[in-house]
Amino acid sequence: MTASVLHRTSILAATLACFAVVPFAAGQDFTDYSGRELYQRFCASCHGSSGEGDGPVASMLKVAVPDLTRLAARRRDAYPAEQVRRIIDGRDIPAAHGARQMPIWGYEFASVSVSEPDAGTESAATLIDRLVEFLRSIQVESSK
Questions:
Q1: pLDDT tens digit string along 60-104?
Q2: Long-range contacts for 108-111 (Cβ within 8 Å, ≥24 apart)?
Q3: Helix, strand or coil, per DSSP, at residue 83
């Protein structure tokens, strides 16, 4: 296989893998999902089931997928909840990452099925809060 064909094949495989393991949220109701369930459904394909950045899609991305278990350890054991929330909902893009490859879950979660028309934003915030708290629960302590 030539390098060009191999490159195109790997891009196609990465794209298909993303669609297979990160299903589109629109029209589905995830309001009863725990933070762990949301993480496994939407994040584990890139970040790995344990959050260490070793998901099945990670090697196909242009930037290294961060180890989410060490967010606090890299900050003297202070978990950056608001920064994590802002990255998940799309308000912040880490400068070192260049173009954003991570989905903006604030938009995706706002489209979940809800009974009241204006409840989408509130529902999205609730789902993101669950993810933020789940990520807090998987933090490892720094070796100081």
A1: 888 888 999 999 999 999 999 999 999 888 888 765 445 556 666
A2: 108/24, 108/25, 108/26, 108/42, 109/25, 109/30, 111/25, 111/26, 111/27
A3: helix
Look up residue 22 and give its amino acid: V
CB-side exposure of 141: number of CA atoms within 13 Å?
A: 2
Six-digit token string for 73: 């350890």
Across the range 30-48, mean pLDDT stands at: 93
pTM score of the predicted model: 0.71
Q: What does the block give as tokens for 84?
A: 């994590």
Residue 135 structure tokens: 């990520």
